[in-house]
Amino acid sequence: MKIIIKSAREIALIKKAGSILADTFDYLKVHTKAGISTHELDRLAESFIRSHGGIPSCKGYEGFPGAICISVNDTLLHGIPSKKIILKDGDIVSYDICVTYEGYIADACRTFPVGEVSENAKRLIDVTKLCFFEGVKLVKPGVHLGDISHKIHEIATSHGYTLTEDYGGHGVGREMHEDPIILNNGEIGTGPILKEGMVVAIEPMVNEGKVELYTLDDGWTVKTLDGKLSCHYENTIAITKNGYEILTLEKGEQN
Ligand code: MF3
Ligand code: CO
After folding, report:
1. Which atom of ligand 1 is nearest to the CA of 64?
2. Whose CA is nearest to atom 2 of ligand 1?
3. Ligand 1: which atom is nearest the Cα of residue 66?
4. Is residue 2 in a domain?
5. Which atom of ligand 1 is nearest to the CA of 107?
6. Contact by Cβ (8 Å): 221, 73
7. What is the pTM of this model?
């Protein structure tokens, strides 16, 4: 395993990619309405990212056909944008986006409600976000990654939810996926020790029901086996001298 330490200049570039990414969430949020297809949302995202000087890094990544991943309801990850998938009231939709700026990548995901959603769906969205923020609070140099994974797992399971161990967070920089892997469960005091200059994406993926998943024949779309909702929240963060900085937050959100 090789965890790359980034310079201040490199972190500034990832932050710029992250600000384009965060603005894309704000833009997509406005368009997240019943009747729009995920293909149309993908087109909007791509043109927004490019017109702000970024590149949608997912496009063509290992052959992925979309500019971003759009995953509705029981789709946990890697939903392929489609003219056939039309949002309807009560859905939840996640936008998992990577933006490259001058060779550096930021990675983040948000899950939004479409119109009025059930109390269960709202709670799932809130708890998934909480998993990230409770986990990230522990981040500072000298801390083991396992502590963060453990906290994410504790928050989700204490609400009766499950988290996959098949996918997780990762280092990010020149490559979309760098070391280390960050699972959403772990033992306190285990795993790599965080150091100033590391940049990682932390991404709780939380299932309302059982943990089992399956992948569609398209080779990408990952769904819950029981058909219940799943939710995803992710930010790219830099480890700083005394803590961390979140590089992909929308303007109204707290760092
Ligand atoms: N953004 C995803 C992640 O968190 C990866 C997307 S896979 C791609 O790692 F093929 F769509 F790029
Ligand atoms: Co990621």
Report:
1. 10
2. 96
3. 11
4. no
5. 1
6. no
7. 0.98
Here the CATH number for the domain that contains residue 96 is 3.90.230.10
Structural domain total, the chain: 1
Residue 148 lies in a domain: yes
Q: Is residue 253 part of a domain?
A: no
- Amino acid letter, residue 230: S
Q: Is 215 part of a structural domain of the chain? A: yes
Residue 107 near ligand 1, beta carbon < 6 Å:
yes
**Phi and psi at residue 124, in whole multiples of 5°?**
-60, -45
Is there an atom of ligand 1 within 6 Å of 98 CB? Answer: yes
CA 244 to each of CA 19, 39, 173, 199, 234: distance values in angstroms, whole numbers, following the listed order: 16, 35, 16, 9, 15
* Boundaries of domain holding 42: 8-246
**Residues facing 235 on adjacent strands:** 202
Average confidence (pLDDT) per 10 residues, the chain, 255 residues:
96 98 98 98 98 98 98 98 98 98 98 98 98 98 98 98 96 98 96 98 98 98 98 98 98 82
